[in-house]
Design a protein that fits this description.
By secondary structure, the protein is mostly helical. The chain is built from four helices and no strands. It is elongated. The model has no long low-confidence stretch (mean pLDDT 75).
């Protein structure tokens, strides 16, 4: 095995090898993991790329949709209080 291959293996195994567990995770790795988790949740929840950038701020509310928008905002407010982070 070459030195480059060994270094690559060690770098790759850095985050899932129990011998390296005492080394704190980098912020970059944590951010990448969070992005993967969000992407996975968006895929599981059926939120495709078309809707991933949607928000209440960009939604055009009409009298016909006002009640539904209000109910959705109330749901998000309640849901956010029960979560550690407010991601909705």
């Amino acid at each position: 095995m070459s030195a480059a291959t060994t270094q690559k293996d060690v770098t790759y195994r850095r985050y899932d090898n129990p011998f390296f567990a005492c080394i704190p995770l980098s912020q970059k790795y944590k951010t990448q993991q969070e992005q993967r988790r969000i992407a996975k949740l968006a895929g599981i929840g059926g939120v495709g790329e078309r809707f991933s950038s949607r928000s209440f701020a960009t939604f055009h509310e009409t009298p016909a949709t006002a009640a539904v928008v209000r109910a959705c905002k109330q749901f998000c407010a309640r849901y956010g209080k029960t979560r550690k982070r407010k991601e909705l």
